[in-house]
Amino acid sequence: MNATGSHQESARPGLMIFLVAMIGVATAVLFIFKSGSDSSSSHMTKGNASGEGQEETANVAGGGADAGLRLIGQSGQRNSTDPDAEPSTITRLGDSFEKALQTTIAVDRDRALSQLAVTFASADPESAVELMHAHARNRRFTGALAHFSQAFGRALAAHDLGTAQAYLDEIPASLKAHYSIAVGKHWASQDAGAATQWALQRTDPELQSHLLSAISGVVEQSSSPLLIDAWAGALSQSPYGLEYSDQLSRVWPISNADAAMEWVGSIADPQRRSSAYHSFAESMAGFVKPHLPFTAPETYWDRHDPNAFSLMQDQRDPEQAPGFAGKRGGEMVNYAPLTIQNLKEPTMQRKLLHGYYAAASFVDAQIGKVLDALDRLDLADDTIVVLWGDHGWHLGDHGYWTKHTNYEQANRIPIIIRAPQHTKAGTVSHQLVETVDLYPTLAALAGLPAPSGPQPIDGINLLPILEHPDRTLRDHAYHCYPRGQRMGRAIRTDRYRLVEWKRPGAADATAVYELYDYLEDPHETRNLAQHRPEALMSMRSILARHPEARPRQ
Length: 553
What we know:
By secondary structure, this protein is of the alpha+beta class. Among the domains are: 15-188, no CATH class; 298-431, no CATH class; 477-543, 2-Layer Sandwich (Arylsulfatase, C-terminal domain). Helix content is 48%, strand content 8%. It is built from 23 helices and eleven strands. The chain has helices spanning 15-21, 23-33, 38-41, 51-61, 65-74, 89-102, 106-123, 125-135, 142-159, 161-166, 173-188, 192-200, 205-222, 225-236, 245-251, 253-266, 270-283, 298-301, 346-376, 408-411, 438-445, 463-467, 533-543; strands at 2-4, 385-388, 394-395, 401-402, 412-413, 415-418, 432-434, 477-483, 486-492, 496-502, 512-517. The protein has a four-stranded antiparallel beta sheet, with helices on one face. A three-stranded mixed beta sheet has the order 5-1-7. A two-stranded antiparallel sheet has the order 2-6. The longest helix is centred in the middle third of the chain and has 31 residues, at 346-376. The protein is elongated.
């Protein structure tokens, strides 16, 4: 099946504020332990305490004498025997924390709290925990404390993961989820299997669910086979495996498609198995190779003899083609040691052909594994398989490599469809189709109504061709690719290709045309636009059915 498709291609906790917001705490604590010390308490008047501060007084004072002593002793109070002494580093940290909480601009507040979280994590994590407890019931600071606990968990995990884990049970209940998720995410980025096991050991179901979701998100975004395999191995063997079956079957194939497919097949619940299978199939919908760089295991290189490759005979631009229509180098020369000059050398061209064929053989083997698994799991008769490429590929013809032209090899792509009850093995159609035809075709094969929506659907249903390969549904295929400010709109019939080069909105008289006859000149060696006026006019009339390209706004 010939197919052409377009490829156009974000006092510590800070004495100052502590006395304003929590003066009840300071006064209560001092009344308990320093009730006769005017020098220490004369600047802390009850008249400055708000209702919120009085509520927190009950929280901290309710912790007993030891809690009060720890809060005052470690919060950097000035030494009572030397009231003029400079405040300690801890005092300054506490002051900064309290000031940050009082900041009214959320962005500035959160930035300051994030920076403090890093400092507390490395200098005094215990004080950070005490500060969170001191303020945890003050609804005024709910958002700020949530941000701080998350930043603190992340920073402490980065500084000392063991300490971060040990502090989990010390965090206020209202902030534990924020803290735990931050720790879990950091852990997952290093050892997803151990992080998952840790999450599974949590006894709070809600916290456990939050942790597993966060860890799974980190793993999926990483695309790291090592992280994915460790995470999937731990989660799939747990009671939560089924709950995450869709995500497991979608992500696991990146690292181990065989293990993922076997696990999907082992799911006893038919509905969950079907859903997981569809997620698996979606994950396997695209293969990168043979895209650049040409990398593949050695065994696939060994399958091809570079000396047996035939180089392109005609490596020149088509005669009388406009100079801007072709290309030189392109994305290929982004890979060392390739240059525009050595791309002309036969030895280098053979190396590139060798790499291309090795990469193509490699992806062919991976596709084979997927098809074998469908057979092994008795899913082949219920699965529609479509294999296609998003663009063609120059391999030295016209002296071009890769894509980014309007010529045949950059636009002609493979399309292979296996649809149970509709296609027969070994049949071939030479009809012209476009990639936009796949959407309505898949809808028809799945027994769904024809797609419709606010935007017009350009594709057509190819089911008649699949069942009757000799049927004709299109008299041409359309594609386009720009050069500078010109848009190259093109059509391909069974014999000709027309390319119209024109700035969008410009007069027709400014257009430059290319016309190629594939019956007489299959390698596009000569532009016939000036020599076949009748064919040119006929092709232009077909192109006129398509809307003019619009200038970019």
